[in-house]
């Protein structure tokens, strides 16, 4: 039987194509997917052994994740927590207790348990809240603030050295608050926070951003004359009215920006202070030069405002759980 050259060539090509298709089939259809992805496992005659190998491989990859963090050193934060006794009282209401509960479960866990107080007009044992003798509503924020500080003076004056007021939609980074206050003298009168101007000669501290008063300031405020009244005991803009009262009591405003003019207390969200901006009318209020962007905020910010509950949970997660691998921070203990 004679086979011409063309027929022989076609037969050879067909055989080569069959080998190629067989190789492709073996590679993409019979070989486990993890082998094609470049994840090496031990060869085995059974699928069960292959699955065991894949699990072992993923376990190895996982060890490069959670097990990479050997320990988190919070010794400096704990040292400041013992040194700087700061009470935070949170202004809330019966209608906004869900926000207050998120505060308690997020940044409230970083506060001293017995120095986190929720102020409302009704008692709620689940938080718990302190029931002040005030009406709810923005027109009575001054009464709530004045009565809250009177309550704090009566029940907590000897338990803390600094006293911060925060809203239930504010996020406070307690470690940074203690660090900032560690350089201040609680026996000197002052109030500090986001310094606003207008309405009061020396200005006032933004209520939304939160503000801190010293032990001496709390003493003066609690012992103010009420008959006749030295300060307005009720009204709408509680931060303005408190500012007027503290000015009458000879309490100065302490600047909270750093040497580069960067802010620590923030009346808006991180998104507004870093990206979106603060609005065209904001410059009217701020006593300092208004800046927006990463370089406008101190690396140890203390507070942000208008934080929704889900955003508060997310912010808390990022602050205390996310870490870029290989970056270690060294902190001054002075």
Automatic annotation (TrEMBL):
<keyword id="KW-0472">Membrane</keyword>
<dbReference type="GO" id="GO:0016020">
    <property type="term" value="C:membrane"/>
</dbReference>
<keyword id="KW-0808">Transferase</keyword>
<keyword id="KW-0812">Transmembrane</keyword>
<dbReference type="GO" id="GO:0016263">
    <property type="term" value="F:glycoprotein-N-acetylgalactosamine 3-beta-galactosyltransferase activity"/>
</dbReference>
<dbReference type="InterPro" id="IPR003378">
    <property type="entry name" value="Fringe-like_glycosylTrfase"/>
</dbReference>
<keyword id="KW-0328">Glycosyltransferase</keyword>
<feature type="domain" description="Fringe-like glycosyltransferase">
    <location>
        <begin position="97"/>
        <end position="256"/>
    </location>
</feature>
<keyword id="KW-0547">Nucleotide-binding</keyword>
<dbReference type="Pfam" id="PF02434">
    <property type="entry name" value="Fringe"/>
</dbReference>
<protein>
    <recommendedName>
        <fullName>N-acetylgalactosaminide beta-1,3-galactosyltransferase</fullName>
        <ecNumber>2.4.1.122</ecNumber>
    </recommendedName>
</protein>
<keyword id="KW-0735">Signal-anchor</keyword>
<dbReference type="InterPro" id="IPR026050">
    <property type="entry name" value="C1GALT1/C1GALT1_chp1"/>
</dbReference>
<keyword id="KW-1133">Transmembrane helix</keyword>
<comment type="similarity">
    <text>Belongs to the glycosyltransferase 31 family. Beta3-Gal-T subfamily.</text>
</comment>
<dbReference type="GO" id="GO:0000166">
    <property type="term" value="F:nucleotide binding"/>
</dbReference>
<comment type="pathway">
    <text>Protein modification; protein glycosylation.</text>
</comment>
<dbReference type="InterPro" id="IPR029044">
    <property type="entry name" value="Nucleotide-diphossugar_trans"/>
</dbReference>
């Amino acid at each position: 039987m004679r086979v011409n050259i063309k027929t022989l060539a076609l037969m050879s090509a067909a055989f080569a194509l069959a080998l190629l298709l067989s190789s492709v089939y073996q590679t993409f259809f019979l070989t486990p997917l993890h082998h094609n992805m470049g994840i090496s496992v031990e060869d085995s005659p059974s699928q069960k052994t292959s699955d065991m190998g894949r699990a072992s491989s993923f376990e190895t990859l996982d060890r490069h994740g959670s097990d990479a963090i050997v320990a988190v050193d919070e010794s400096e934060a704990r040292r400041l927590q013992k040194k700087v006794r700061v009470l935070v009282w949170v202004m809330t209401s019966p209608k906004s207790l869900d926000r207050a509960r998120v505060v308690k479960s997020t940044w409230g866990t970083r506060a001293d348990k017995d120095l986190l107080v929720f102020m409302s007009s009704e008692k709620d044992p689940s938080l718990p809240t302190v029931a002040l003798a005030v009406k709810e509503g923005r027109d009575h924020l001054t009464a709530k603030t004045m009565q809250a500080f009177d309550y704090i003076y009566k029940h907590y004056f000897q338990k803390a050295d600094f006293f911060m007021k925060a809203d239930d939609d504010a996020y406070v980074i307690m470690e940074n608050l203690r660090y900032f206050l560690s350089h201040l003298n609680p026996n000197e009168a002052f109030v500090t926070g986001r310094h606003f101007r207008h309405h009061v000669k020396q200005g006032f501290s933004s209520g939304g951003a939160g503000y801190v008063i010293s032990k001496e300031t709390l003493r003066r405020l609690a012992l103010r004359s009420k008959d006749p009244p030295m300060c307005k005991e009720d009204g709408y803009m509680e931060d303005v009215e408190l500012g007027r009262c503290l000015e009458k009591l000879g309490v100065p405003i302490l600047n909270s920006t750093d040497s580069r003019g960067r802010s620590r207390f923030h009346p808006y969200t991180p998104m507004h202070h870093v990206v979106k901006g603060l609005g065209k009318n904001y410059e009217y209020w701020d006593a300092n030069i208004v800046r927006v962007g990463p370089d406008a905020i101190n690396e140890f910010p203390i507070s942000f405002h208008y934080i929704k509950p889900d955003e508060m949970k997310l912010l808390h997660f990022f602050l205390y759980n996310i870490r870029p691998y290989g970056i270690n921070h060294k902190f001054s203990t002075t």
